[in-house]
Amino acid sequence: MRLSRSLVPTLKETPAEAQIASHRLMLRAGLVRQTSAGIYAWLPAGYRVLQNIAQIVREEQDASGAQEVLMPTLQSADLWRQSGRYDGYGAEMLRIKDRHDREMLYGPTNEEMITDLFRQSAKSYRQLPQNLYHIQWKFRDEVRPRFGVMRGREFLMKDAYSFDLDQAGAVIAYRKMMLAYMRTFRRLGVQAIPMAADTGPIGGDLSHEFIILAPTGESQVYYDAAFETIDTSPSAFSFNSEADLERFAALMTTPYAATDEKHDEAAWAKVANKREGRGIEVGHIFYFGTKYSEPMGLKVAGPDGSLVVPHMGSYGIGVSRLVGALIEANHDDAGIIWADAVAPWKATILNLKMGDATCDGMCEDIYAKLKGNALYDDRDERGGVKFNDADLMGHPWQIIVGPRGAAKGMVELKRRATGERVELSVEDALSRIG
Ligand code: ATP
Ligand code: MG
User: Which of 72, 88, 173, 177 could lock 315 by a disulfide, CB 3.0 to 4.6 Å apart?
Assistant: First the structure.
């Protein structure tokens, strides 16, 4: 993209309404704009990041064997009456009436809808297990939307729902998701720790929140540094081996990890390498047995012919919250530091002398070679403005083209994360970027 013709409205001033770094930087770097309280429009650079995150989430869900679907945002109140949740859900639910006075709602989550879809076609235990997910907008009328996209009212979530014949099957589904989540967050460039969460009336220990450390997190968290060295790669664990999944689950639940609500000082005192700080919840996985399948009448024929009520779990990732959370985890005074995997563009090209034939020619050549992976700063602006905006926007690589270097066929290549700058030929610079 050429910056001179793009809607990337960077701001020099710090917006007064933003209390935390990620919110300030998302506004300043022109990623989003608020359209009403807790509701955001995603501008080109921000939308590219959102899509990159969604794609990594999708690839890891697919690798685990889950199937992607797309359910609507609008749901009928009747479905929620069947599960018994409609009246109890409270003010977070946005309730709407259509022109025929039918009660609708903007989905805050999709357990009811997926259970309904599944019961229409699942007849036999032979169709189990299955896991279905979608990446779709949710609406929750949060009392206090804040911190930009981190606690919005409309937000993008990946939510998956597993169906198994019995609890033992559901445990396997749960472990698969836990493994998929660890791989997802690793690819996004952050360390996420699974922490035991409340299971409510279901009981047991099959509910975990995935927390990443950042100074502005909403809860205090404690964990053993042992988590940081666990290898979760496909060479260490396979989704197809129950023994692998069991070994993985044991590794993930043995070292100490707790949010402040569940913190145990005595157990904490025994941890050798402590990590402590504020944490942001980026995902939540939950086994809930027959909580929805039972009241909604989902039954399949079991192996002996009698009807069985499938066991379910649900698995969420806050896709839009992650954009803010990744910035909280990776930024400095100058701006955002994107991991290569999620950056809106791999590189930016800074033309320090627009109108100079050599600089222009070199920039055009690099821009063409990077095939859509670069943002070309072709604005008629001073170098200082371009440097500041490039640091603010957090492109992993900056290719700096000035008249002196260009005359010798050289550019400067800057790595945003380290600040390292080297002079290279165009060819060498491009091969470094990869
Ligand atoms: P929280 O305690 O932060 O309100 P939750 O327990 O209500 O989260 P879930 O229902 O488990 O969240 O939703 C799954 C994921 O969706 C969460 O882990 C979080 O990353 C994300 N999420 C939840 N609420 C919001 C919101 N208001 N804005 C952005 N993301 C959200
Ligand atoms: Mg909530």
Answer: 177
